[in-house]
Amino acid sequence: MTGSKRFDNYIGGEWVTATEYSTNINPSDLSDVIGEYAKADVAQVQTAIDAARAAFPAWSTSGIQARSDALDKVGSEILARKQELGTLLAREEGKTLPEAIGEVSRAGNIFKFFAGECLRLSGDYLPSVRPGVHVEVTREALGVVGLITPWNFPIAIPAWKIAPALAYGNCVVFKPADLVPGCAWALAEIIARAGFPAGVFNLVMGSGRVVGDAIVNSPKVDGISFTGSVSVGRQIAISCVSRQAKVQLEMGGKNPQVILDDADLKQAVELAVQSAFYSTGQRCTASSRLIVTAGIHDKFVEAMAERMRSVKVGHALQAGIDIGPVVSRAQLDQDLGYIDIARNEGARLVAGGSLVTCDTEGYFLAPALFADSTADMRISREEVFGPVANIIKVADYEAALAMANDTEFGLSAGIATTSLKYANHFKRHSQAGMVMVNLPTAGVDYHVPFGGRKGSSYGSREQGRYAQEFYTVVKTSYIGS
Predict the structure, then answer these.
(1) Are 159 and 231 in the same domain?
(2) Which of 238, 51, 221 lies closest to 143 in space, CA to CA?
(3) Is 284 tagged catalytic?
(4) Residue 444 located in a structural domain
(5) Among 284, 361, 398, 408, which one carries the catalytic annotation?
(6) Does 383 lie in the same domain as 242?
(7) Is there a catalytic annotation at residue 103?
């Protein structure tokens, strides 16, 4: 590890060294060191916040064309370098290379979308109920925003927070997950050359307990957008509400995928495999609960077991691989722990669930599928965040809908059916923020709202035009003649 390249924080328009660095390791090959990345201390975080605060007055009132041009430049460079950045993402996080390149492309398109949003800012001009008075309703930038992102989408989630924040005139203090700083640094380096004034964008890498806490608790930060665990999200909400800062949270999921008797079996199996296991199941929208009605249940279990025998697990950069490694040793231990829990609770292991040996040392796990599970098992109620799913047998559509909604979460829900009646009913009565009909529960567009209900999300939606609800504040002006 000696001699690895070091990557610094970006604060106030300058690259700033740190007293401590963390080593970034490839989960597909533990001998592959991606680099050593700075770990900011509290003083550096405060410097970044102060730089953002100082830059805010000018940036928030700057010309929309300059904002648009800078964001478009970022998007164009990301897209031009998608192969290179996708390779970095696959090395760092463990997605297969095609998935990684797809995520990078999405990040580039997000920046380009919000470059356009800079030029589509709108408001209302209304007559007052009082003669001779008119009313203007406009939106202004929120202020300094702290953006805290997870490890599972190391460039797409930062993009869908950073791009709208900058588009609407905010200044950013960005903390990526400590586990995957490489893509965050690469994105910051692109942003640093795109023409944004010093202090408008700042990158502070490091641990949540140091960097994250300093951002969340700073009275100079006007809003926090966080994606991560439920426990941390709830702590952030308490802190923000106590000091009246705006807060946006995207947290856990226990997403149902309903399979009805009338579903196309081949299609249902394929979307279930993609929902549950692609990206190593490390997606908040992944479906770990496969709720199957009685008439198709046995055929579905058999077909799933057969399909999973052809799923290839291996090095994320290897051609022909379907699923890469688990992201870390800690996450692998959690996955294996839930596999043991499911067995001990009486669920039947249908396929997978064992470690996979590859040419390189890494965190490789064959995706695990359980059957004969019940709604009260921990495997049915708790988020695993790995390639582990279970099948729950129900009598009919009504029982399937009830089972789908029987969770503290409400992010994404899917249904496989050829019935327009059931599809429409499910769309209306599913207690989820996003509903997929004959599609995997994971896989969303960047130009429409993203978010859930119940314990999955808190605050306004992310992505698309709905992002303005968090990153702006509404002002009502009355004008007399």
Answers:
(1) yes
(2) 221
(3) yes
(4) no
(5) 284
(6) no
(7) no
